[in-house]
Amino acid sequence: MLPLYYWCVFLVGLGAAAGSGTGSSSTERELNQTPTWAVAGVCTVIILISILLEKSLHKLGTWFTERHKRALFEALEKIKAELMVLGFISLILTFGQSYISKICIPSKVADTMLPCKADGKHDASDTSGDEHEHRRRLLWFQHRYLAAAGTSTECKKGSEPLITVEALHQLHILIFFLAVFHVLYSAITMMLGRLKIRGWKKWEEETSTHDYEFSNDPSRFRLTHETSFVRAHTSFWTRIPFFFYVGCFFRQFFRSVSRADYLTLRNGFINVHLAPGSKFNFQKYIKRSLEDDFKIVVGVSPVLWTSFVVFLLLNVNGWHALFWASLIPLIIILAIGTELQSILTKMALEISERHAVVQGIPLVQGSDQYFWFGRPQLVLHLIHFALFQNAFQITYFFWIWVMNFS
């Protein structure tokens, strides 16, 4: 990063360059006719914001490193990479918009697959000059262009620009806020997850008490169906496939993880990965696992960018693409919630079928075969996709709202 001294030298030189230009007869002032204090002042604000952002991210990365939060540090690096991608997108749109807007296509082709009704194709009562001007004023940030916004495109009769400079500017803003909302939405989701895991701390502390050691005494035997975990997840309907999934579907709307679930999963994890009776903080392990998952979901993968482009392609007037796209994350989240509840129920059924008696807490056997296609990572990728789609729906809603009411 350049020292602040060099930025000051740059501003002084920029102000001198702005004042050395010749006059212009244009109604809109160009850079060489703009006061040097205005140019330097605007650049100062932009540069200070950039430096503040860079310093804040650096401090945050140092804080993660000092506290050995490797996963969160890698997530921060991924956010920096996304900011770099956005920078390249902004650079390409800024310097390429004048060339893209000069590409002309036939008017008949330009009138196909429009997201809204085209001007001049409404009822006769809507074709007056006042109504036409009113609709034009509803366009989002109509007079706010990028650096080359003043460039006009001349196409021959019967042809129109492939995409106008104004449309490129709106697309530019949409892409920027999509990435920002996705990072914020993922961060908020992780914070809610950490709050949920924090509630399990009291259950973890119970494992160090004498009451827990007494209830988990190997000399105490119980029938399988008498354990809290099996009793909570098994009943007559769990033997019928249809009612099995219906019950798992509705169970996700109540308390997702109970005390018996937590202690049973903890006991199974320790017996598989550690020596039985080991002192292990299972709650902190889950918290670190959440941070590892956040490192994945905070990024915008090529698949997610592809889904964004596909939505823009299918967002045709009358197809109601926004409505159908909003159902996709809802269906995914409900399906994942049902699947996770079914995994707990399958574990409980397996225990009841395998053992007649258990010692203390029942021992579950974790396996990838409980998940779809034997791939636990598929659940994480689906959550990643749902988070991105939710962020996109929020972004697109505000984008349409501003475009119609600003």
From TrEMBL:
It comes from the Eukaryota. This is MLO-like protein 8. It comes from Citrus sinensis. The lineage of its organism: Eukaryota, Viridiplantae, Streptophyta, Embryophyta, Tracheophyta.
